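User: I'll paste a sequence; please echo it back and then give the predicted structure.

Assistant: Echoing your sequence first, then the prediction.
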Amino acid sequence: MMTTDARHSEMESGGYYNAHSRPQGSASELGIPLLERAAREVPLDGPALQIADLGSSQGKNSMLPMRAAIAAVRARSADLTIAITHTDLASNDFTALFELLQSSPLSYLSGATNVYAYAAGSSFYGRLFPADTLHLGWNSIAVHWLSAVPCAIPNHIWSPYAQGEVRDAFRARAAQDWNTFLEARSAELRNAAELVVVASSADDKGFAGAEGLMNVANEELLAMVRRRRIGADRYDAMAIPTYYRTRAEFEAPFTASSSLELLESIPQVLDDPYWPEYERTHDAQAFAASYTAFFRAFSEPCLFGEAGGPVADEFYAGVQSRIAADPAAAVCRWQLLLLRARRRPR
């Protein structure tokens, strides 16, 4: 099967993702207690405590977790140097991240002493740091993005609807990526260092909790094909490069002989963060606008390319109209898995 380059996982630039990633931020908050526990237990050795924020995107959803990690470390050592490195693809909007760090009241640098921020532009499906240097790793709502799209998904853009050999191809790619991710972190983490992952996951049937929203989007694309606004070949090549692993798939690499020991594995369901406001106001247009912006922030680059354009504008306008006509159809209850692991002694 043909493999497509993984650069499809870029996010909408210009700070757009920061402004429209509320569900991802809500999911990250659920992982903060695990991050705090990890920060209270990692060794405080070396000239600086090294923290990796793996898959940071534009940074807004990293601020609160990093503040929590800093506070937990400061409770143990008031003056230890802390170095935080945010990583993402080289095409990531790092400018939005740097501006947030320097000027936003949300920045964990605000009021902090002896804390330093850095960035690295490379995929976390590979080594990012020298061996035996990291004390704490954090990854939130990112490992469902694949390193590559293994093949097209017939009649849909979302892998939970893949079947047969196509689903097998996505599952195999996801397993390879997860193993690669863990092997890289195992090499980078110091003895007794820890890794916390907040993962978008799937139930035992392989569904992630956003089937309604993705069906709305797919139906609009098919309507555009019928209107000849998008060619059938172009639609056939569209796929959001994600796979949602089950709990068993996430836990599989953590064997008795693996270098990483799994300390916690906690399933969670993220209730829709937009729905309570809709229930209060019954403003279908506002609900649809919020959901469309959230969806566009992560899907436009992989569906339409970084430039977007009039066809993309028409598509997202159509998605918004469909959601406004039936708000309940777009409600998401994301399946999550909170993982915490420790590096075994070498």
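The two ends are 39 Å apart (CA to CA). The chain has one domain: 4-343.
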